[in-house]
Amino acid sequence: DTAVSQTPKYLVTQMGNDKSIKCEQNLGHDTMYWYKQDSKKFLKIMFSYNNKELIINETVPNRFSPKSPDKAHLNLHINSLELGDSAVYFCASSPTSNSPLHFGNGTRLTVT
Amino acid sequence: GQQVMQIPQYQHVQEGEDFTTYCNSSTTLSNIQWYKQRPGGHPVFLIQLVKSGEVKKQKRLTFQFGEAKKNSSLHITATQTTDVGTYFCAPSNTGKLIFGQGTTLQVKP
Q1: In this model, does residue B1 exceed pLDDT 60?
Q2: How many CB pairs under 8 A join A and B?
Q3: What are phi and psi of A12, to 5 degrees?
Q4: B8-30: pLDDT as tens digits
Q5: Burial A55-84 (b: 16+ CB within 10 A, else e)
Q6: Is A64 in the B-facing interface, judged by CB distances under 8 Å?
Q7: Which of A21, A39, B23, B38 is the most buried (most CB within 10 A)?
Q8: CB-side exposure of B42: number of CA atoms within 13 Å?
Q9: Cα B22 from chain centroid?
Q10: Would you write out chain A's pLDDT as a tens digit for each of its 112 residues?
């Protein structure tokens, strides 16, 4: 199936831990994104990569570090997790930066 | 920076009633996209509007882009329970999609 797939679907961890979320797309898209959706459903862009190159880096703490080993993958590593990091994180991809987004199913991160 | 206001935040309707959500921007937009997110799901692309005054229809959904390209609306005629979800507008101005706050629609059968 062609899709944007991200793992894990759920992530429960304690404050201070380090965790990673993986994302892969087989749509052949050049651009990939990470979005954070809070409890009020507000969707905020965090990062955008185009062909492995970082093009958007919103005001996100340095504890968040994206890594794109190739244009089909965009992973998100989070250091020293805090309670406020609890949210649903969506990976997305698009053919170009202005094109419609294809979202993954999301990773629900709960920090206790 | 670019700001987007989407109203209302919540709407409860009886099945069969109409529904409209509005998206207003403080700046002129190059295009605007609309997405739907079902409860527990992920946002799914519905449509993209590019031209001033553009109107597009998808079955019971009507999307409109304002003449000044600063606002847009989504109208659903005769809502059904399958329309339940959160509808987001996502204007683009600088090559970056900024999502509105979303309008969550509840439909009572």
Answers
A1: no
A2: 46
A3: -115, 125
A4: 999 999 999 999 999 999 889 88
A5: ebeeebeeebebebeebbbbbbebeebeee
A6: no
A7: B23
A8: 22
A9: 7
A10: 669 999 999 999 999 999 999 999 999 999 999 999 999 999 999 999 988 888 888 878 999 999 999 999 999 999 999 999 999 999 999 998 879 999 999 999 999 9
CB B86 within 8 A of CB B104: yes
Judged by CB atoms within 8 Å, which residues 18-37 of B form the interface with A?
A: 30-31, 33, 35, 37
Q: Is the dihedral of CA B65, B35, B10, A38 positive or negative?
A: negative
**One-character DSSP codes across B19-80:** EEEEEEESS--SEEEEEEE-TTS--EEEEEE-STT-EEEETTEEEEE-TTSSEEEEEESS--
β partners of residue B65: B72
Instruction: Compute the Cα dihedral for A53, A57, A63, A64 and give only its sign.
Output: negative
Contact A49, A98 (CB under 8 A): no
User: Which residues in chain B are contacts of A97 at CB distance < 8 A?
Assistant: 95-96
The answer to whether the Cβ–Cβ distance between B42 and A103 falls below 8 Å is yes
**Tokens 């999502």 -> residue:** B99
3-state secondary structure of A83: helix
pLDDT (tens digit per residue) in B82-95: 999 999 999 876 66
